[in-house]
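Technical annex, item 7. During the second reporting period the consortium partners agreed on a shared format for inverse folding records so that results from different sites could be compared directly. Each record opens with the tokenized structure and is followed by the designed sequence. A conforming record, contributed by the partner at site C, is shown below for reference.
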């Protein structure tokens, strides 16, 4: 296949890139590259499922670079962003340069808060009542930086600012705490603007934007892509091609960006900031509204609010109106010449605008929004508002005026792309109307031989798990599996409480070390798990999708139960009800799809290389007995499946023996 008339063949370009990266071409990678090239050339859209080990990053980078259009690549995780900009893109660009007779440029672009702010660094953080009397940098210097971790972090940030070319937080190793970073960073709303800031010419964030403007490929994240789509003011340069990697995360990330939150803490902070620079009448009105809101939130019960209680609605109206008055007062001097108070004013304005926008959205209570109250032990109660669906938003903002490629190892759920497609605002494949964009789904498979490399074991004999927990039979089964496997177990639990209970119980029964998420940083836990083969690692959500440990350290992946969303999850239960009211199957469209995605991701932790062998054990009999079980199994890798516990234990023991023998030789 030829990329352009008279240009190099796509297969030649792919071969050059794969050779440069140090891999080998795979049929799935070639098929993906060809499909991506066709989508770009035809201006259409592609959903491409590419299993682990396919080499999907080169499968989309090569045709994207060859096409000559400007490309945005959006990823969900920092690890993949680093892989693209530090490994795949530099090598691919150099490999393709002689064939394309040009050198494509690439750049990374993130949200402003990811870059160190020189104004904050040199001029200090605008003081608030709860920050104490001393500037944190001055305090760190007075104590020689040794009085606290915060002080050490701040002084190291000062030194790093002089050395760094990008000011990108992710390039600071080792990292610093969120509290320390907040002292040297600003949101886009708090930023003074390059033309007004004394450090505008040196600004790291502005430099990143300038590099992105002239780049052929811009690597960003899902959150910034969502902000670009939702807020109307473009933050990404114009582009003809959008590639969304880890696309199974996109709906969740867009929903997160489109979710507003209001709590007494954020409101009180806005009041304190504004009180310093607006007239007393405006400040008092907002303080009174804030106190009323806080009093009501102290007694608010968690759960969905299909209708705002009358007293809360009045409080939110008062808060909205008071915030609008303060914004008017702040705006009257917003464009004045720079003064020492300019940063204070911008910070106050950003806080009050946030309060106004969320309060107004809550008061409006649109039928397209879901409102609920959450209560946290540490932060107290908060009101949250999120879109009932983001499918229409994505259809309108994402799939117009550019070709879009979405790829992941898990896009086919239940055997087809329609479930994921619907969440993205796409009609069922082949059923395109005027309002729905044309798209194609492609599963390029995996280089792994799943039926020979893995076993899916469903513990059909166990009792169906209930909401009350305390599953003694499940813990007994889990202990037996871990003993047979010689440790080497990644335990994926549906809740942190279940993971903690299992760790506590089995630490007293088994000799193998058991690590628990939350007892150490996630990176350190995964490193220990990978390096010490008998070790087990138990945890919840981030482990279902964030662990890449090939080899003998991970030969058993256990799921304690099917990870359906909680029945009281306000947003997902509202989405499920909306599907049912429209005549659809809400359980399958929302709850089962949610579980299928997590189970596909979780099962994908087992086989990460061609030599891996092992078992995925699901300790929930519903996977074998319930009608929806076949949908969930069809979403997972095509492992050999059994419900025979004795067979599985023998297989695990054999895999363990082979690993021990290999380690001893």
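Designed sequence (site C submission):
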């Amino acid at each position: 296949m030829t990329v352009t008339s008279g240009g190099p063949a796509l297969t030649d370009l792919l071969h050059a890139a794969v050779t440069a990266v140090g891999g080998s071409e795979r049929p799935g990678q070639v098929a993906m590259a060809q499909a991506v090239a066709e989508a770009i050339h035809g201006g259409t859209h592609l959903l491409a499922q590419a299993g682990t080990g396919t080499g999907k990053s080169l499968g989309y980078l090569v045709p994207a670079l060859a096409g000559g259009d400007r490309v945005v690549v959006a990823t969900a995780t920092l690890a993949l962003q680093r892989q693209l900009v530090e490994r795949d893109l530099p090598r691919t660009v150099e490999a393709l340069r002689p064939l394309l007779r040009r050198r494509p440029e690439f750049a990374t672009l993130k949200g402003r808060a990811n870059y160190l702010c020189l104004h904050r660094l040199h001029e200090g953080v605008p003081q608030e009542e709860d920050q104490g009397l001393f500037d944190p940098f001055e305090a760190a210097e007075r104590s020689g930086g040794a009085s606290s971790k915060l002080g050490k972090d701040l002084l190291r940030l000062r030194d790093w600012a002089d050395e760094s070319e990008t000011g990108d937080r992710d390039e600071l190793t080792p990292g610093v705490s969120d509290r320390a970073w907040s002292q040297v960073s600003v949101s886009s709303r708090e930023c003074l603007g390059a033309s007004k800031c004394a450090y505008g010419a040196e600004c790291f964030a502005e430099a990143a934007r300038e590099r992105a403007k002239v780049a052929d490929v811009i690597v960003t994240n899902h959150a910034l892509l969502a902000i670009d789509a939702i807020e109307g003011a473009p933050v990404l340069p114009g582009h003809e091609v959008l590639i969304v990697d880890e696309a199974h995360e996109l709906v969740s990330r867009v929903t997160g960006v489109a979710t507003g939150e209001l709590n007494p803490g954020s409101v009180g902070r806005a009041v304190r900031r504004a009180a310093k620079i607006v007239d007393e009448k405006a400040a008092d009105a907002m303080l009174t509204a804030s106190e009323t809101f806080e009093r009501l939130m102290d007694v608010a019960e968690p759960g969905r609010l299909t209708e705002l209680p009358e007293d809360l609605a009045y409080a939110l109206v008062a808060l909205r109106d008071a915030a609008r008055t303060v914004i008017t007062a702040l705006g009257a001097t917003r464009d004045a010449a720079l003064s020492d108070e300019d940063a204070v004013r911008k910070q106050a304005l950003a806080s009050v605008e946030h309060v106004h926008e969320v309060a107004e959205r809550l008061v409006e209570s649109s039928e397209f929004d879901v409102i609920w109250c959450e209560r946290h032990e540490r932060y107290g109660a908060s009101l949250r508002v999120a879109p009932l669906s983001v499918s229409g938003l994505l259809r309108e903002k994402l799939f117009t005026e550019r070709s879009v490629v979405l790829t992941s190892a898990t896009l086919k759920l239940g055997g087809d792309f329609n479930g994921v497609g619907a969440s993205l605002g796409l009609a069922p494949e082949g059923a395109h109307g005027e309002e729905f964009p044309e798209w194609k789904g492609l599963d390029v498979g995996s280089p792994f031989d799943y039926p020979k490399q893995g076993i899916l074991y469903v513990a059909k004999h166990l009792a169906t798990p209930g909401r009350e927990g305390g599953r003694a039979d499940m813990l007994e089964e889990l202990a037996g599996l871990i003993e047979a496997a010689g440790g080497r177990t990644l335990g994926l639990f549906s809740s942190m409480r279940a993971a903690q209970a299992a760790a506590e119980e089995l630490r007293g029964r088994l000799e193998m070390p058991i690590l628990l998420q939350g007892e150490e940083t996630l990176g350190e836990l995964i490193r220990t798990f990978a390096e010490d083969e008998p070790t087990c690692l138990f945890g919840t959500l981030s482990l279902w999708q964030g662990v890449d440990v090939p080899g003998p350290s991970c030969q058993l992946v256990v799921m304690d139960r099917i990870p359906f969303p909680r029945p009281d999850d306000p947003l997902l239960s509202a989405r499920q009800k909306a599907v049912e009211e429209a005549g659809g199957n809400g359980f399958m469209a929302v709850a089962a799809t949610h579980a299928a995605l997590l189970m596909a991701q979780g099962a994908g932790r087992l086989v990460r290389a061609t030599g891996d062998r092992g078992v995925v054990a699901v300790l929930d009999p519903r996977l074998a007995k319930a009608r929806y079980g076949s949908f969930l199994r069809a979403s997972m890798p095509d492992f050999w499946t059994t419900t025979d516990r004795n067979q599985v234990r023998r297989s695990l023991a054999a895999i363990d023996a082979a690993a021990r023998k290999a380690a001893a030789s």
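The first strand starts at residue 45 and ends at 49. The CA atoms of residues 46 and 402 lie 12 Å apart. All partners now use this format for quarterly exchanges.
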